[in-house]
Amino acid sequence: MRLPEPPEELIKRYLQGDREACRELLKRPEYYLICQIIARKRFLGQSHNWEDAAQAAFEKVLIEALNGNFTQGSLEKFNHWCSKVALNCILDLLRKIKTESKFLQNKNPQIIDDVPDIREDLETEDTNAQIQKAIIFIDQQNPKKLFLQIWQGLKLGKKQTEIAHDLGLKQSEVSKRIRELAVLVGKELDWLNVKQVEEELKNIRQGRKPKRSEENWDN
Fold this sequence. Notes:
Blueprint: H1 7-15, H2 19-26, H3 29-42, H4 50-66, H5 75-100, H6 109-113, H7 119-141, H8 147-155, H9 160-167, H10 171-188, H11 194-205, H12 212-215
Helix pairs in contact: 1-2, 3-4, 3-5, 3-7, 4-5, 5-7, 7-10, 8-9, 9-10, 10-11
């Protein structure tokens, strides 16, 4: 069986012009999860759907990457770049919402847009570390779910069928646990409230299909 290609090798191929390597790299679940986490945090208290914002941000990351707009750097720098692209996309969506809001009708949106947010760099730099810490904690609270082992398999570039074989599970069960993990990470980082967590876990357990970007993880 051909071993999955390490992400470090994928980023090397991508920087040499191999766009298929870029697609393979962005199929890894952490990239869409980062978009979800940033969207949940930024859209907290908004009536608009953060899931649509996360989907738009992920598509923006994919388009920018496929266009070759990341030109040099390590895998770590690529991850930071993806987080920054996602954040900027989500901030642009929020700015459009603000300019259309009645609350801001008599204000100058340019002034609002120009106010720097010193949290932005910290947010993109710390997102991956926050996810890792949350997953370790969640795994400790749910040892029978094997969340950490599933995540480590994904980090190694393994397909869900391979992870399922390694752990003695069905592929559908691995897929379900990945989706559960994403919800629990959102809860642990306080970007999902109790009601949202209950609704999303209910959808997962009822077998409702994920959005297209999440379906990319089910290979």
